[in-house]
Amino acid sequence: MGIRIGIVGAGTTVAIADRHVEGFLAQAGRCTVAAVCSRTLEGCRRLCVRHGLDGVRMTTRLEELLDVVDAVVLCTPNQFHLPYTERAVERGKAVLLEKPLGLQTAPPGQAERLLARRDARVMVAYVYRYTAVVERLRSLLRQRMGRVYLAQASQGGTRLADPAVPLEWRMRRSASGSGALGDFGSHLLDLLQYAAGVELAEAAGYGGTFLPTRRPDGQGNTCVENDDAFVFCGRGPAGRCAASPSAG
């Protein structure tokens, strides 16, 4: 059976939970998806059906999932990441969560205290670190090319350029915290540090929302609160610079 995995959040907006399940199924024997928790049991059932999962505990309560797993994957809206991580760590579970760990509205020091715990096994899923091209780039920079003085990168998607896409939680500040900068830009900042060794000491940027209204969500909201494009530049020690646009 291996490590018993619990998936928290079964939404299909960008199918993050599905990608995690596919990864665990590819590691059959080392781990198994033992439980799924979502807002509705129907959401849990659909995730299981899509991947042919049998004998999986389905629940709408996080505590019930924590009763039967060894590790948790958080695929929920960002506002739940930090409180759910805390509850899982309190129960002795390892946690893999989608970025970010917490929102700016979290009480000061809450995330720092959590990560300072010796028993906290928590990892934010900056998955691009582990792609072959990034590993190759990191190796070349460290072994052959030497110090990086200027780095430029861009990342984005085209899904949100479609005005037919309705309002979703990523577009609401209370649920997501930030838009393109947090969604795509955070990956670029991580790769600048991980692959190129550039740590920014200061930065400036500009974000914009090109489609300020969307078709209503389930609560009747229409106004987009977060940026769907962002450009930033920064400077690190000894004048090392980075520049990067990102778009949702």
UniProtKB/TrEMBL annotation:
InterPro entries: Gfo/Idh/MocA-like_OxRdtase_N (IPR000683), Gfo/Idh/MocA_oxidrdct_glycsds (IPR050463), GFO_IDH_MocA-like_dom (IPR055170), NAD(P)-bd_dom_sf (IPR036291)
Sorted UniProt keywords: Oxidoreductase
Record bears the keyword Oxidoreductase: yes
Keyword Oxidoreductase: yes
Residue ranges of every copy of the Gfo/Idh/MocA-like oxidoreductase N-terminal domain listed in the record: 3-125
GO molecular function: nucleotide binding; oxidoreductase activity
Name of the molecule in the record: Gfo/Idh/MocA-like oxidoreductase N-terminal domain-containing protein
Protein source organism: Flavonifractor plautii 1_3_50AFAA
